[in-house]
Design a protein that fits this description.
Layout: H1 2-16, E1 26-30, H2 34-47, E2 50-56, E3 61-66, E4 72-81, E5 84-93, E6 96-97, H3 104-113
Helix pairs in contact: 2-3
Length: 118
């Protein structure tokens, strides 16, 4: 009887220990230099109220957190692609990934800042 209770408890607890799902990126190819794109990403995030926690121009990466509730975290990566750049953004709240379509306004504003808006 005691073994059955322990086994049942282990089954219940293992259901709570699920692996964290990685956030799905939202990407946009841009006809702009990667350095300029990364600079604009940093400026845009700061204007939106994000605090830049980590930035590495050599790696083309930025991590920022929203300085007010509800505490979003955005990670941006800018890579060279042909004659332009590819910007990739992911967002989380707490440790939960946010739907990638929520990043569309940031990408649209980035495109406008770079003078590439349709």
């Amino acid at each position: 009887m005691r073994g059955l209770v322990i086994a049942l408890l282990l089954v219940v607890l293992s259901g709570c220990a699920t692996a964290q799902q990685a956030p799905e990126p939202r990407e946009l190819a841009l006809a702009a230099a990667p350095e300029a794109t990364l600079r604009e990403v940093v400026g845009l995030l700061m204007e939106e109220g994000y605090v830049i926690r980590h930035a590495d121009a050599g790696l083309g990466r930025v991590e920022a957190v929203l300085a007010r509730w509800p505490g979003y975290r955005v990670r941006a990566t800018v890579t060279s692609e042909g004659q332009g750049a590819r910007a990739s953004l992911t967002a989380t709240r707490g440790d939960r990934p946010l739907p990638p379509h929520l990043l569309d306004p940031l990408l649209a504003e980035l495109q406008r800042r770079l003078g590439l808006a349709p």
